Amino acid sequence: MRINSVVIGVAALVALAPAIALGASFRASDAITVGPQEVVRGDLYVSGGTVSVGAPVAGDLVVFGGTIAVTGRVSGDLAAAGGNIQVLGQIVDDVRIGGGNLTFGDRIGGDLLAAGGTVTILPGAVVDGDLYVAGGQVIIDGTVRGSVSMTGGRLSINGTVLGSVDARSADAPVIGAGARIVGEVVHHPVDRPMHRGDGTAGGVLSAIFFAIAATVTAVKMLAYLGAAALVVWLWRRPATAFLQEAYGSWWRSVGVGVVYVILVPLASVLLLVSMIGLFPGVLLGLGYAGALVAANVLGGILLGSLVTMLFARRTTLQVTWASALGGVILFRLVTLIPFLGWLGTTLLFLAAFGVIADRFRKMIM
């Protein structure tokens, strides 16, 4: 009876996780607009194809989407990932952001960590902390009060940098006539890595590490392929229903995945340190770990099923042996693509995790 009560308590805690997130708000849809007339008290999690946040946010803002515009004031941190992202409102603390085209037009009170194809700091924009950026083209027309650390293709500075500039790029930084840099400018040309297989100690160690890495990768791949095979063999219909739900309500599933990926570990830690005891916290942690593995497998199957549906010109998503096993392999290969590959596989994983969490919540409520 006591164990049953604990299990029910843990299940209820997981189901109510979004509600206990200290005032956090969650919104997910194909197109989302949080207008300037609204006031968000606490953290805000948003996921959608097109997202516009013009309202002041009293806490942190976490956004996933295709096109994102943030014009309101954020009193905490900003974390965002998407295609075309514009941050034109004030961010009081740090910004961690990744996307295709990134534009910043207001004040950032902390550090800015950005990765994208093109990263632009507009005239009048201010970064009070340090700038850590990776991109094909980085343009600084505003002010960075800290230092700049850049990795990528080309860095152009026409504004002000009160700290130093450290660039690891193929081309030397382009400093405009009106630029002001207080610290030192250091350029590290990007060279192709040297191949060390000449039988020296370095070459032997490199070969050993490569063999270990290749073995671990092969074992992980076989494990994921085995899991995908089990899914098709034993649970093809439920898996098909899961993935059809993820595909049919894509951005909602991604948003739910974001919320539960963040909040379930917090709930597990709260259980571990609370009066409830060790067992429920461990139980919730094990369930979370299992859901992470399942979402990785289902994310690969979802990718394979989407590719199969596209090339076969089907109108519905179906899980087959080929789409499952091929999708798992393709999922692992796509992760090797810098940034865009990581972003794509992360969205697939979050969509799968969101459906798993939502199904469990509906089951226990």
What does it look like?
With 365 residues, the chain is of the alpha/beta class. It has 6 helices and 16 strands. Strands 1, 2, 3, 4, 5, 7, 9, 11, 13, 14 and 16 form an 11-stranded parallel beta sheet that branches. Strands 6-8-10-12-15 form a 5-stranded parallel beta sheet, with no helix packed on it. Helix 1 (2-15) crosses helix 4 (278-312) and helix 4 packs across helix 5. The longest helix is centred in the middle third of the chain and has 48 residues, at 201-248. The two termini are 20 Å apart. Residues 1-22 and 192-199 have low confidence and may be disordered.
N-to-C series of helices and strands: HEEEEEEEEEEEEEEEEHHHHH
Q: Describe the global form.
A: globular
Structural class: alpha/beta
Rounded mean pLDDT score:
81
Largest sheet: 11 strands, parallel
Low confidence ranges? 1-22, 192-199
- Count of helix runs: 6
The helical percent reads 40-55%
What kind of assembly state do the chains in view correspond to?
Answer: single chain
Radius of gyration: 23 Å
Proportion of strand residues:
25-35%
Distance between the termini: 20 Å
User: How many β-strand runs?
Assistant: 16
